[in-house]
Amino acid sequence: MNSDTALADRKPQASRPPRLWLRFAIVIIGLGLLASGLIAFQRFKAGIIKQVVTSIVSQRPTVATAAAVTLPWQTALTATGTLRASRGADLAAEVSGIVDELNIPSGTDVAAGTVLLRLRPNDDDAKLEQLRAAADLAAITYQRDLKQVKEQAIAQSTVDSDAATLRSDRAQVLAQQALMAEKVVRAPFAGRLGIRQVDLGQYLTAGSTIVTLQALDPIFIDVYIPQSYAGQIMIGQAVTVHTDDQSDARFAGEVTAVNAKADSSSRMVMVRISLHNSDGKLLPGMYATAEIALGAPQQRVTVPAAAISVNPYGSLVYVVQPQGGGNGAPPTMMVRQQFVTTGETRGDQVSIVKGLEAGDQIVVAGQLKLRNNIAVLINDSVQPADDATPTPADH
After folding, report:
1. Quick count: other Cβ atoms within 10 Å of Cβ 258?
2. Enclosing H/E stretch for 44
3. Looking at the domain assignment, is residue 116 inside a domain?
4. Which CATH number characterizes residue 228's domain?
5. Digit-coded pLDDT (tens) for 41-79
6. Domain enclosing residue 217, as ranges
7. 157-191 pLDDT, tens per residue?
8. Residues 223 and 286 in one domain
9. What is the Cα–Cα distance from 49 to 365, expressed in whole angstroms?
10. Is residue 134 part of a domain?
11. Are 304 and 317 in contact (CB under 8 A)?
């Protein structure tokens, strides 16, 4: 039985080889499925990458463009200064006394010679009459002695003494009249009065300011310019002046004088400018800015200030150029960096000395999204400011 049992145990082992072939087949099928999955994943990944690339290409940066233009450009020197009246004075009495008459309408225009203030005369009139009487008596005595000296009734020395007495008495009359005139304050020239500083009945000491008087038309502004520009400033040169009163008012004037020397500490030269001010809008003491025209206007290539980008290598603009196209297909708009040399600025405009030509299409908005030699989309519906004389405004 032992042998039969052993034989019975050995019979199932003869069927094991088919199991090995089954396992091998399963491995082959698994490898095929894995390879198929890898191939499918690679195709999926390639499709995703293609979609992303297509999306990136289609999302080109949108920019606004404008053409560089040639405009007349007037080179001007800007300087600041303080307005001053063509004639101005702080009026005061020459002597002390009580204010007896006051005729100072504050803030109004007065003519030259207008009596503004009188001090109390006290006994000045009586003293004047006394001196006039003495002068009249001296004149009568002198005339009588002239007749007597012809008859040799008196000596010539008496006549000479009478003449000296007459001149002395008349001089005392003039001195009293001058003293009385010092108690009257008149407008020395036509102009506008300020706010009076005294009241009726007030005791006024000599030299105390009564009121200011300013002649406002014309009005001056004194500015300082660098010595390097002194040779370019001529008498009669046109000037435009504006103040910081938040208005766009500009006043025309001209250069009337150039100082004969430069300041030794600052090397600046003072220039006086005369302005018409018939409406009285400009007042002495105001701070103002003057733009002095230098030479004749020239033609300059200009671009909006928003088109200029600055990096460590200098100033640059992005120039738009079409590429490709044809056969009904629109060209691709490409941008390239172009370094430029900028000149003077005028409001929102910048003059270009070198690097651009009139007609070049440049980017004026959207530069932050750009780099050299990339395609862009153009939308010019919104344009930056390009005003030579902009006016600030609150929005």
Report:
1. 16
2. helix 17-58
3. no
4. 2.40.30.170
5. 888 888 787 776 555 555 788 899 999 999 988 888 888
6. 78-83+212-293
7. 888 888 999 999 999 999 999 888 889 999 999 99
8. yes
9. 31
10. yes
11. no
